[in-house]
Every structure is written in C-alpha cells, then in structure tokens.
Amino acid sequence: MTIRISRRTVLGLGAGLVVLSGAGIAHAETTLERAKKDGYIRVGFANEAPFGYATPDGKLTGEAPEVAKAVLAKMGIKQVDGVLTEFGSLIPGLKAGRFDIIAAGMFINPKRCAEINFSEPSYGIGAAMLVQKGNPKKVKDFSTFKDNADLKLAVMAGAVEGGEAKDAGVSQSQLVVLPDQSSLVAAVQSGRADAAALTALSIADMAKKADGVESTKPFGEVNGKSVKGHGGFGFRKEDTDLQKAFNAELKKFIGSPEHIALVEPFGFGKDYLPNKTTAELCSGK
C-alpha cells in the first residue's frame, strides 16, 4: 500500500453534499457514507514505529494501521490512504479534515477526549527511557529527573510523556521537546538529553535500530501513579456513525487469533491487550 493523497481523495473533500432529486433537500453525506461509497478512507499517522509508520518502499504499516485496515475491511472499506503528520499535529489535522481517522496508537486521555472521540483501546502498555549505552546517568524512570535537576529529558511534542514527567515532579526547564523519534535518538546520542521517554515498545525499537543507545527496564508506575497508557483510534466529534461502526467491528476483533497474529510482528500480543474502557480512560480512571 502506497502512502499518497490521490486525485480522488482531493475530489472527495468536496463531496460533502448530496442533493435528493425531486425533494429539493440537501442531505449532508457523512464520512462513513462517503467512505463506503468510494471504497477508501484516509488515516493520519506519525511515523512512530511500531505504532504507525511508512516502510522505505512507502507501505503504511504498524500496529494501528494494520488493525485499522483489518477493521475497515470488515466494514466494506478496502483501501486505506495514509497521511504522514507530526504527532502534535494529528488532532488538528483530523479536525481540519486532512484525514478521517487517527491511526497512530494515540493514548486515550481526558484532554484528548475533550477534542475528539476515540474507539475502544486496541492495546495497553507502559513506558521506558532511551539512554546512552551503559546508562551512565543511572536513569530509572521520571523520578531520576525529579531527584536531579541537572538532567535533561527529551520528550516528543504532543505525546503524553511530557505531562507524565511534570506530574512526577520533573521541571519544565528539564524537558527537551522534539518533533519525532529520530530527533529523540539524536538528542540522547549527542548528550543534548540524558534520556528520552516514550512507550516501552517504541524505545525498544529505537534502541534496536540506533547506535550507542539502549533501553531502560520498562515501568508502569511512578511514585504510585500509573503511567500505563491505552491507545486507540481517533475520530471527529461529528463522525459518530463512523466511530460506532468501527467500534462494533473492533470489539469483536481485539484479542481474536486473527488480531494476535496480525500485531505480534510489531511486538504486541496477548501481554498488551487493553484492560480499561474508553469511558474509564476519558474520565481519568
């Protein structure tokens, strides 16, 4: 599958109204109706492996896009076009209509729920830190930075780790906010940051691919507070029919043998199945 904005995608942006002949009434075509009619839909992703990324030959893959493709196919939508977007621009891009679903493994939390709707979660996972080989600063988790104000922690713009760090008592002046994974790796390699924080699977993937760095042991709690995140798919507030139809198929799919086989190559599996609902996550439970 290639990542593109095709001519028909652009034309589809203008297909919001269908005139009912004879009645003289304009019917607003929903995103779901349009996608089913056209047989394709656009999803936003942030090139964050293993959640959602493009391969060197332009194939859209990762846990979230592959689950989305499987679920959408069961809904009769066979083609998925990917729109590469910086993580911090995913919600604005969705609301602006650049794409119709966020398929980036985005954590579900109350702040994001106030802006967009989410599917039920497709996974649950803890965090980890990327550090230089040998972990010279003995970084364990966010508490290491709380206890040493001289240390710098790299976080990705728009991701939850910046907020988690501050909740754990890390000063804003200690945070180095960067746009993507590659800049996080570079910051740790160069010493600009003493560590970078992301989900455990992302950090493991970054450590495997980059020189001179390694992952700390994953953690799910800091100072008695859970930092385990649950990721799902984002929808515009008005696209309730799309969200409900997607959720109906997603609930049947998650945890099935088909689902486990699909996501295991990305490091997910039975140990990463969600244990909270979207309602609980949106309420901050």
Task: Report a brief summary of the structure.
This is Ectoine/hydroxyectoine ABC transporter substrate-binding protein EhuB. This protein has 285 residues and is α/β, with parallel strands linked by helices.
Describe the structure.
There is one protein chain. The protein has 285 residues and is an alpha/beta fold. The protein is 33% helix and 24% strand. Strands 3, 6, 7, 8, 9 and 17 form a six-stranded mixed sheet that branches. It has a five-stranded mixed sheet with strand order 12-11-13-10-14, with helices on one face. A two-stranded antiparallel sheet has the order 1-2. Helix 3 crosses helix 10. The chain is globular and about 60 Å long. The two termini are 38 Å apart. The N terminus is likely disordered.
Helical element count?
12
Order of helices and strands: HEEHEEEHEHEHEEEHEHEHEHEEEEHHH
Count the E strands. Answer: 17
Query: Any low-confidence stretches, pLDDT <50, length ≥5?
Result: 1-24
* Biggest β-sheet strands, sense, barrel: 6 strands, mixed
- Label the structural class: alpha/beta
Q: Overall mean pLDDT score?
A: 90
> What integer value in Å does the Rg equal?
20 Å
> How big a fraction of the residues is strand?
15-25%
- Per the principal axes of the C-alpha atoms, what is the gross shape? globular
Distance between the termini: 38 Å
What is the helical fraction, as a range of percent?
25-40%
